[in-house]
Amino acid sequence: MKNMITHYGYTDGSGEYYIVIDTDRCNGCGKCVKECPQSALQLETMFIDLEDKTVASVSEEHRKKIKYTCSSCKPERNSAPCVLACEGKAIRCVWNSR
Q1: Domain ranges, residue 57
Q2: d(C-alpha 36, C-alpha 20), whole Å
C-alpha cells in the first residue's frame, strides 16, 4: 500500500503554512473535524490505492487561507486541537515563519 500525504496551505514570503494529513494513518473517525474550532476540516472520500477511503481534509473554503484560519490554535506548537484529537497521529502542522 502506498502512503499518501496531502498538504493543505501555501508558502509565501512570510513563511510556510500547511496542514499535513497522512491518509495512510487517517482512519476517518472525524474527531479532528469535531475539535476544529474554525470548522476548517471535513471528512472526504478519496480514491486511494484503488479503493475509496474516507479521510480528513481541509475544506475548499479554507485551503488558501489556512494561515489565518488556523493561527488562533497556535499550530507552531503542534498542539492544535485537530492534532491533539488525532489518535493515529495522521495530522500535523507545518508553520515556519521567515
Answers
A1: 5-97
A2: 15
